[in-house]
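Quick one before lunch.
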Amino acid sequence: MFENLEAIAPDPILGVLAAFLADDNPQKIDLGVGVYRDEAGDTPILECVRKAERVLLDTQTTKTYLGPAGVAGFNSAMSERLFGADSEALNSGRVRTIQTPGGTGALRLAADLIRAARPDSTVWASDPTWANHLALFPAAGLNMQAYPYFDAARSRLRFDDMLELLSQREPGDTVLFHACCHNPCGVSPSPEQWVQVADICADRGVLPLVDIAYMGFERGIEDDTLIIRLLAERCPEMIVASSCSKNFAMYRERVGAVSILSQSAAKTEDVVSVLNSLSRKNYSMPPAHGPAVIDIILHSDELSSLWEQEVAGMRERINGLRSDLAQRTRDAGLQRDFSFLEEQTGMFSFLGLSGEQVDRLADEFSIYTVRSSRINLASFNASNLDYFVDALGQVL
Ligand SMILES: Cc1ncc(COP(=O)(O)O)c(C=O)c1O
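Model of the pyridoxal-5'-phosphate complex:
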């Protein structure tokens, strides 16, 4: 049977990583990687996670099966963080969260849920969007279309075009949003613009699906949930796919969650039963370690305030690097204006280079990224910024 299978080309990011690892230039920089790095270039375990892991080790009494919805305390804490502990949606019983294997698992469960509810629903995603969105929804049998989002020539949001396209959507359409720190372009609507987006979603009766993979990396943990809260106040139904990979730095533990809002507490129970059955069919139940750790953190005043500080530290480092880089390109007198880097947020931005310029960065300077010129700002540090700006000036 396997004779029917053709090899699939590996993700370009893996090729970038392989080339970086094989390069022995001590000044090499990997700007392609999708994880947070500290000043030393490491992706450390958060202190709050270390402390909670010790508590878990001492208090865990069993490793028996969990059930398809995962760790209950993690699920309720995530509902509160995403929708607000005092929100009407939560307190009326219309919101429920179930744990999934990472944010990707949450998106896949969300896709399966949409397919079960409305097989003909089209998922509208921003142009561009995270590459895995483009693979994942069709893999679940859903159609996808793009709405205008990023103006690559000006490195800005195409807000009017986006709004116009959203205002033509119909009930039965699903519209996917990045709640904060858009991957790959780093551009987000302002709070005022999010209000307009939420109003249009309510007006058009679409199903909003919010992907929140960087909560806390844009403006703050609570602030970054703004679009979720605006939609929950206006729309009868929505889905949120969240990831704890970045903001708890628990990448390999695969912690995520899918949350649903429906018209009534009774309907929410029905939808949760469908989610549980989808979980059971896909992977039976999600892994326990990561969410059990986060359950401990979010139910401890001391550990949750430590987590908030550590997230603020990561956010401030990235924003600081954005400003430093933009400033150094100005100081170096580069012809091109990179001040957009300061206005964008999160780990990713496009540099706006051609594929040939990206190749030159790799070949001549050992600076690696994908050919779209998306870079991870967290790969910079005080000792490689000048080297990078010099190389950038030369390829420009
Ligand atoms: C926009 C977006 N959504 C979802 C995810 C999924 O994250 P996870 O690693 O938790 O599956 C990512 C990870 O890079 C992402 O960038």
